[in-house]
Amino acid sequence: MTRSTVPPAEVPTTDVDLYSDDQIREPYETYRALRDAGPVVYLEKYDTWAVSRYEHVREVLKDTDTFSSAGGVSVNEPFNRQLVGTTLASDPPEHDKLRGIVAGSLTPRALGDRRAAIEEQAEQLVAGLVARGEFDAVTELARVLPLSVVPDFIGLPQDGRDRLLDWASAVFDAIGPMNERAQRGLPALAQLGSYIGDLVEHGTVTPGSLGDGVLSAAREGRIPTGQCPALMLDYLGPALDTTISAIGNAIYLFSRYTEQWDKVREDPKLIPNAFNEVVRLETPIRGFCRHTTKETSIGGTTIGAGQKVLVLYAAANRDERKWQDPETFDVTRRVGDHVGFGFGVHGCAGQGLARIEAHALLKSLAARVASFELLGSERALNNVIRAFASIRVRVTPIGA
Ligand code: HEM
């Protein structure tokens, strides 16, 4: 990538590649260095400005007039062009209109109707795994609920469901730079594009589902039909890998910090807070971009108009200026204001669903598992999502 901006001499710059395998495996020391270097650090390799302190991440996310999503949230421009028309890549007032299209499916009441079925599914899944004693907490636990709940929620036909994980992972790779990893995902992205195109063309979504809500909006003239694929992508893209990552990260952390699991087990009311703490400490989405609409200043550093700014949620969530002992996993920490689900108008639209799934699994586990023993783990390498490909655990059932 060519460097097109020359930052003023006083602005810290770095040639680190946040998207290399090594940085994806172990990003936290670099995040600390970025935070310590200043409110904004220029990433030479990507001609992008990284914001990593909590205070400034919130400032940027709040000021949608200056830090626009309309030019896309990816590091690379070709994929930004593919994001045009999504809620994610829009600014108010258009953003608010788009977000409103399917808001009805995501209200606490609408989600509440699904809760009992999700909890029942979690119970059955967890009972079976605990009876076996050893299992893979990614492939056999974390993936199972999202892969059944999300496609039903969006209203997808059975055909194509087996490709959803590959497609979702390609979407998140493409939100990084167009490195080799992202390029390898291009065929999957093309398939996803034609899958969504077919859904819209043939209207093959379940009546009453979120996808049906998108198509109805077009039929009623509230959005052009041509915008339906983008709105489907909004929900198909981020609903799986994020939740799977968070559930996997939870089991990994509880197997390493067994005393934290003891607390949850003894007081399951801690589960919602514990899940927030997981999302803070091992933030599933590392960072998304914004583009500056005018010259502006972040923490006293001036940035010109038309610049790309990388907002590092994962770094802000470990900022020692905000959090006491940020590296410590503490399920009792006051953690409600982490930015793992974003902040401001683009704050995660699907977090209610993600929370229902994760809370249900943790509740079922808390009723059955005395402790987790980590047998081995393997990291998944994705440009944006921090996750494991595999976490093998042995569980000790309560009362064993
Ligand atoms: C643990 C799970 C999840 C995490 C950590 C997560 C994280 C995020 C983050 C950080 C953003 C902010 C994007 C920005 O600032 O530009 C976001 C937005 C979004 N998320 Fe999630 N997400 C999760 C689950 C889901 C699920 C299950 C769905 C769908 C059902 C979903 C749908 C969306 C949508 C549509 C947006 C865009 C909202 C907008 O632009 O107004 N997410 N998510």
UniProtKB/TrEMBL annotation:
**What Pfam families would the database entry show?**
p450
Show the InterPro entries listed in the entry.
Cyt_P450 (IPR001128), Cyt_P450_B (IPR002397), Cyt_P450_CS (IPR017972), Cyt_P450_sf (IPR036396)
Q: Which CDD domains match?
A: CYP199A2-like
Q: Which PROSITE patterns match?
A: CYTOCHROME_P450
Assigned keywords, A-Z: Heme, Iron, Metal-binding, Monooxygenase, Oxidoreductase
Q: Which family does it belong to?
A: Belongs to the cytochrome P450 family.
Task: Give the matching PANTHER family.
Answer: CYTOCHROME P450 YJIB-RELATED, P450, PUTATIVE (EUROFUNG)-RELATED
Put simply, this protein is called Cytochrome P450
Taxonomic lineage of the native organism: Bacteria, Bacillati, Actinomycetota, Actinomycetes, Pseudonocardiales
